[in-house]
Write a structure and sequence with these properties.
3 helices; two-stranded antiparallel sheet; two-stranded antiparallel ribbon; 93 residues; alpha+beta; 35% helix; 22% strand
């Protein structure tokens, strides 16, 4: 397999990391499932999702719906690091 370098993404605004961290901190759903934001970089988000009996399915594995929920937020926030926010619900890229 070939090692392909990651793209050199440039954030649209200097405050992207603070904006993303502040928004993530307001996500009650992420707190409920135990997801934590550990890295914010242009075009990249790293999160952890701790194993807990509260989020497992009948065989003891984290439920796929929980993983999908965390992944949805991670993808949205990764995209948001590259966007300029111009208003409460108005994101432009």
């Amino acid at each position: 397999m070939r090692n392909i370098p990651a793209p050199d993404f440039q954030p649209a605004d200097a405050d992207y990391a603070a904006r993303v961290r502040e928004s993530f901190a307001q996500q009650a759903a992420m707190a409920l499932i135990g997801a934590e934001l550990v890295e914010v970089a242009p075009g990249r988000i790293a999160m952890t999702l701790a194993h807990s009996a509260r989020v497992t399915q009948q065989h003891g594995f984290i439920h796929a719906g929980i993983v999908s929920t965390a992944l949805d937020s991670a993808c949205g926030y990764a995209a948001a690091t590259l966007m300029t926010v111009t208003g409460r619900d108005d994101v432009r890229h």
